[in-house]
Amino acid sequence: MIAKGQLDTELDLKALCEDIIVYESYIKGPGLYLKFEEDGPILTIARSGKYFSSGVKSFEELDSIHKDFSDLMNDLGVVPNNSEVSFEVVNVVTLQDLDIQIELSRLAMSLGMENIEYEPEQFAGLVYKPKISEGTVLIFSSGKVIVTGSKEISDSKKIHKSVESFLQSNI
User: Fold this and answer.
1) What is the pTM (predicted TM-score) of this model?
2) At 149, which CATH number?
3) Other Cβ atoms within 10 Å of 96 Cβ, number
């Protein structure tokens, strides 16, 4: 899951990095990277005050990292005390393993060429853009199906269910 936000202030990343006491913080390229715990999600902060989190596995984890980040920014005086730091989910990525082998060239014909991108020389999977949602589906011959581009887990589940149903009746 990926979420983004804005602190509404320009930041001195080097000074901020020196003031931060978390599991890990470092500057690389144009961003400051933070981790609150060893295997936790990463927050990337830009000088403009924009930030995003990646590697979040659930909405509960997202709420937790957002609270930790908001508290840190309040404690450091980056934002006025007790101010809410804005954020929104921009991408949910889900994986399903159907535990079947899929013949992708046959599937491409079944889905219709106008809804898919399939170039096996370029990418090992079939890219499908279902009409039921704004998400994108990556289907692999191993039976793994990845849905990306949704903002809600319920949308991803709906797409997974639709793809699984289609595959069961057409493969």
Assistant:
1) 0.74
2) 3.30.310.10
3) 18
